[in-house]
TrEMBL record:
<protein>
    <recommendedName>
        <fullName>Response regulatory domain-containing protein</fullName>
    </recommendedName>
</protein>
<dbReference type="InterPro" id="IPR011006">
    <property type="entry name" value="CheY-like_superfamily"/>
</dbReference>
């Protein structure tokens, strides 16, 4: 598993999305410039799966994103890595996941 970028603001996270090819994102709800909801909206529009990694309770997350998985902070780094790896494995087997569509279109 490779971490492409770390962004501490919505502005920098949106720039990463626009300039990179992401398979998955791990988002904190609270960033330096506000919430990550604009980032979450962009990820949803691009069909890039993501998880909120946050200390926010599910009830504190905007209703628009109640279907997004939430991983509660704090967590051990190994647990987070295993969680993300397991999720990526599941997503890779899903025909609608962008990585799977790329695979089908390139014949890889």
């Amino acid at each position: 598993m490779t971490v492409l970028a770390k962004a501490s603001s919505s502005v920098s996270a949106l720039k990463v999305i626009d300039e990179s090819s992401l398979d998955f994102a791990l988002l904190n709800v609270e960033l330096q410039d506000g919430t990550s909801y604009p980032v979450a909206k962009r990820l949803k529009a691009l069909e890039i799966p993501f998880v909120f990694f946050t200390s926010f309770e599910k009830s504190e997350i905007d209703l628009e994103f109640h279907d997004v998985p939430r991983l509660a902070k704090p967590q051990d780094a190994r647990f987070v890595a295993d969680f993300v790896a397991g999720l990526m494995k599941t997503l890779a087997q899903t025909p609608t996941h962008p990585a799977k569509r790329k695979e089908a279109s390139t014949g890889v």
